[in-house]
Write a structure and sequence with these properties.
Strand order of the largest sheet: 1-2
Radius of gyration: 17 Å
Distance between the termini: 69 Å
Number of strands: 2
Number of domains: 1
């Protein structure tokens, strides 16, 4: 019995797990979580390269701060810009792209 002494540690683990998951999968060469891969999406830097772990961490932190604090209203930014980038994408220098080539049938 820990008498609640481990509660802060457990809370920290619960808060950091989604952050670590996103940074682990989107930082580096693959640049996509398993769910993003399922839908052929990929996170890239603005110049087209793969984001590193720091940039993926900055994007995840910006998402975690901006979306809940504005009650998801910050996502309206995607509708208002031509590249459909969210505020956390703009501030972190990333963009989510469709990684699968589009086949045009004629």
């Amino acid at each position: 019995m820990t008498f609640g002494l481990l509660a802060p540690v457990a809370a920290l683990i619960v808060l950091l797990t989604p952050f670590a998951y996103f940074v682990w999968f989107t930082g580096g060469r693959n640049a996509a979580t398993p769910g993003m891969r399922l839908f052929d999406l990929k996170l890239v830097r603005w110049d087209g390269g793969s984001p590193d772990y720091v940039q993926a961490g900055v994007r995840a932190a910006l998402f975690a701060v901006t979306v809940p604090t504005t009650s998801f209203l910050v996502l309206i930014v995607m509708v208002l810009n031509e590249r459909r980038r969210a505020l956390h994408d703009i501030l972190s220098g990333t963009v989510v792209i469709n990684d699968k080539p589009v086949m045009i049938l004629s």
